[in-house]
What does this fold into?
Amino acid sequence: MPRGSKAKYTDKQKRKAEHIEQRYENKGVSRDEAEARAWATVNKQSGGGEKAGGSGQSTSTSEKKTARSDSAKRAAKTREGHARSSTASLDSQTKQSLMKEARSKDIRGRSTMTKAELIKALHAHH
It folds into this structure.
């Protein structure tokens, strides 16, 4: 039998492991191997037993991903509103940064432009 107490697992996780174990045994896998595989599957799917503390509500991976995406969109929106008007502020940027800005403004021919040409094109695009 695999090591470790199953006391921290929810009833749902225990039922799931039992069901998975039964299916492996029906395929001819040994009892011990079937149990080990079943618990490994439950752990992979749900991240193991109950987590200590907290309100019992955890943020799902997809919710975190959505929150990150929303945050990134808000940040991009904020940056959009900050148009650079002076050539001096463009001068202080790296060519890579200017290239990124030219890409976002869809300036044609940017890949072959020098830094000075990028500055000129960005200035003319405002």
Remarks:
- The helical segments are 11-26, 31-46, 61-80, 87-91, 95-104, 115-125.
